[in-house]
């Protein structure tokens, strides 16, 4: 069965989606290496395998649309426009990082690109996106707010409070759930009897859809429909993307709780390979293009590594200076 | 001078702020109806339900919405009906609001005012009577203010509304309806500036919130015994105006700290520690702390009355400091 819409995908769009996914894939794999080399510090959660969600959603947003994310946020920040070098410098705790080295992997913020931030507390980001949507409405703009969260966030009270409030106030916020089937180390079935997140919110009569989150075109198409409505001031909506976290919960996770996918199973799921196969069969992707796209991403990531390594650590004076805004 | 109440001063200040700045909005349970004491009475009628937003009983989401709104250009004022319910919003307050500016390397600001009220004395029992301000002062990034008069409530609220940081504004339910004369012009009170409520030369009493007027009453009683007490209201706990307190202690050489909160781990411990670090040699007696015993607030009226620290406790502590 073909991926995404039956309609033919525009080749330029397809190439852009591939480029964006490759940038995140290669970045994340490199971050994994740098974590093991102790150049990237702290708790690191990679999104390898989930790139289609970040790219399918963020690629359609404007800079002024606010995006919030959680602990697995690198891909979302990059897809929203954060420069690779500054993301990596942040993960390395450097002054040239997005947050001058004070946030780290779980707390990326890039206001210039409308990435209002990641939070390390599962579910804590959801009401923030509502507030941003409310501000957009009261200040008279047509910007929307988007929040990414995992299926693990849905069992928390603040999620239910937020869905209730967003529907009550009809806020133009799009809730994007990356349902990778695991909340940290535990399968969804051990946390709840409700398999689909879209079913959790059903009583609120919220517009919702569950898509194959490893099919970037499916994510993009579903999100485009929601986005068009949110631009007109409608909302909220929930997009549930069924996806697969290829790596552990965090870097170093021995993953005793699950069986790794066989290589051929992953080939069928990998959002990059899937779009490449489609591009070749549709005729907008040449046979040798994937290798070139991957190499371009590798070159860009290596430049980011150089940038980050050359950035100094922040001055200790900065700590006290940034407790309060002045 | 105009006669007003602590509560009316808050209502009037909120109304002025909303007239002056369309970014100011109020969020909270029953705020459109004025709330249980009437702090927001009349505001929904003047400013509409978009800017005076009734919310469900969802403290975490309310506070989170306010944080997000503040990060995106609004100036939200959140009302948490009882400080006891701040517990439900602590992730948003402590992990999100307090740290956003710092963790973003200065990119984000959270100009948010969280109004709440605490204190016992109304038979509310242990879940509607607490004084939890010390917890909040322990979190870098939050400012914590605790006005004891109508004039300070108005003046500090003006400053809180203009502050680019999250400010927790802790009112006291037993002060709401006290009549007070305030200046016609509402002056802002700088956050981080204490007030010498009553000058004196023998003992310094640093008192918070309801204990300020209790300490003044104690001072008047002690004056009849020839004891001259200076009463200082820090007004803001974070940041704390240590200088004014230390200057006083350097004259009196004796310090009593008084608040309604449980003594153990209360903010009085922080004041005592900072004063002895700054002025150990000035002290002629151990620093005394007045506050509640280490129990939840009891319900039964005689038990609650016995639990509540007040003027007699302050007077006893002052006499002991002079005897020591």
Short recap of the structure:
The complex is a heterodimer of chains A (326) and B (324). With 326 residues, chain A is of the alpha/beta class.
Explain what this protein looks like in three dimensions.
The complex is a heterodimer of chains A (326) and B (324). Chain A has 326 residues and is an alpha/beta fold. Helix content of chain A is 43%, strand content 11%. Chain A contains twelve helices and eight strands. Chain A has helices spanning 11-36, 51-58, 74-79, 84-91, 126-139, 157-168, 197-200, 216-231, 263-269, 271-282, 289-310, 317-321, and strands at 66-69, 115-118, 145-150, 173-179, 182-183, 186-187, 207-212, 237-242. In chain A, β3, α6 and β4 form a beta-alpha-beta unit. In chain A, α1 crosses α2 and α2 runs parallel beside α8. The longest helix of chain A is centred in the first third of the chain and has 26 residues, at 11-36. The radius of gyration of chain A is 19 Å and the shape is globular. The N and C termini of chain A lie far apart (57 Å). The relative contact order of chain A is 0.18. With 324 residues, chain B is α/β, with parallel strands linked by helices. Helix content of chain B is 37%, strand content 21%. In chain B, α2 links the parallel β2 (24-28) and β3 (52-54). In chain B, α3 packs parallel to α4 (90-97), α8 (210-223) packs across α12 (311-323) and α9 (242-252) crosses α10. The chains are: A alpha/beta (326), B alpha/beta (324). Chain A binds chain B through residues 66, 68, 97-103, 107, 109-111, 116-117, 119-121, 124, 126-136, 138-139, 145, 157-158, 161-162, 164-165, 168-169, 322-326, and chain B through 23, 25, 50-51, 53, 55-56, 58, 60-74, 76, 91-92, 95-96, 100-110, 140-141, 143, 164-165.
């Amino acid at each position: 069965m073909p991926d995404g819409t039956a309609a033919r995908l525009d080749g330029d769009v397809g190439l852009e989606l591939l480029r964006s996914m490759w940038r995140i894939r290669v970045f994340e794999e490199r971050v994994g290496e740098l974590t093991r080399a102790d150049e990237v510090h702290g708790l690191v959660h990679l999104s390898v395998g989930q790139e289609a969600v970040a790219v399918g959603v963020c690629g359609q947003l404007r800079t002024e649309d606010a995006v919030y994310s959680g602990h697995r946020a690198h891909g979302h920040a990059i897809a929203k426009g954060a420069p690779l070098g500054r993301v990596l410098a942040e993960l390395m705790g450097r002054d040239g990082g997005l947050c001058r080295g004070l946030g780290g992997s779980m707390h990326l913020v890039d206001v210039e690109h409308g990435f209002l931030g990641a939070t390390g507390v599962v579910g804590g980001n959801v009401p923030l996106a509502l507030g941003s949507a409310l501000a957009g409405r009261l200040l008279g703009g047509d910007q929307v707010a988007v929040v990414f969260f995992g299926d693990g966030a849905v069992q928390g009270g603040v999620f239910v409070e937020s869905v209730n409030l967003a529907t009550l106030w009809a806020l133009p916020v799009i809730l994007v759930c990356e349902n990778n089937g695991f909340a940290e180390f535990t399968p969804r079935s051990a946390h709840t009897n409700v398999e689909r997140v879209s079913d959790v919110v059903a009583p609120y009569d919220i517009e919702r859809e569950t898509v194959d989150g490893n099919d970037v075109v499916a994510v993009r198409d579903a999100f485009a429909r929601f986005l068009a409505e949110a631009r007109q001031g409608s909302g909220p909506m929930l997009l549930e993307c069924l996806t697969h976290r290829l790596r552990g919960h965090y870097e170093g996770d021995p993953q005793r709780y699950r069986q790794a996918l066989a290589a051929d199973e992953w080939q069928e799921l990998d959002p990059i390979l899937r779009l490449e196969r489609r591009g070749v069969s549709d005729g907008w992707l040449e046979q040798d293009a994937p290798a070139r796209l991957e190499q371009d991403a590798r070159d860009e990531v290596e430049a980011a590594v150089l940038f980050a390594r050359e950035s100094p650590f922040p001055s200790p004076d900065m700590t006290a200076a940034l407790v309060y805004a002045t | 001078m105009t006669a007003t109440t602590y509560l009316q001063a808050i209502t009037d200040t909120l109304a002025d702020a909303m007239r002056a700045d369309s970014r100011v909005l109020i969020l909270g349970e029953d705020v459109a109806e004025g709330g249980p004491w009437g702090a927001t009475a009349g505001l929904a009628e003047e400013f509409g339900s978009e800017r005076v937003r009734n919310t469900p009983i969802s403290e975490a989401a309310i506070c989170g919405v306010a944080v997000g709104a503040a990060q995106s250009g609004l100036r939200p004022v959140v009302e948490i009906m009882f400080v006891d319910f701040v517990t439900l919003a602590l992730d948003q307050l402590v992990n999100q609001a307090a740290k956003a500016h710092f963790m973003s390397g200065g990119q984000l600001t959270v100009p948010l005012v969280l109004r709440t009220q605490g204190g016992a004395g109304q038979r509310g029992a242990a879940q509607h009577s607490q004084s939890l301000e010390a917890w909040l002062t322990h979190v870098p990034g939050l400012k914590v203010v605790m006005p004891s008069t109508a004039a300070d409530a108005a003046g500090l609220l003006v400053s809180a509304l203009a502050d680019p940081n999250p400010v927790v504004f802790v009112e006291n339910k037993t002060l709401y309806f006290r009549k007070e004369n305030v200046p016609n012009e509402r002056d802002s009170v700088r956050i981080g500036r204490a007030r010498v409520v009553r000058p004196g030369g023998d003992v310094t009493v640093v008192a918070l919130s309801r204990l300020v007027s209790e300490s003044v009453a104690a001072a008047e009683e002690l004056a009849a015994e020839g004891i001259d007490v200076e009463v200082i209201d820090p007004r803001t706990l974070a940041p704390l105006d240590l200088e004014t307190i230390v200057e006083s202690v350097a004259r009196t050489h004796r310090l009593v700290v008084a608040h309604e909160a449980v003594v153990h781990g209360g903010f009085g411990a922080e004041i005592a520690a900072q004063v002895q670090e700054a002025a150990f040699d000035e002290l002629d007696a151990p620093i005394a702390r007045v506050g509640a015993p280490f129990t939840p607030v009891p319900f039964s009226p005689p038990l609650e009355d016995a639990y509540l620290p007040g003027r007699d406790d302050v007077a006893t502590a002052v006499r002991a400091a002079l005897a020591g």
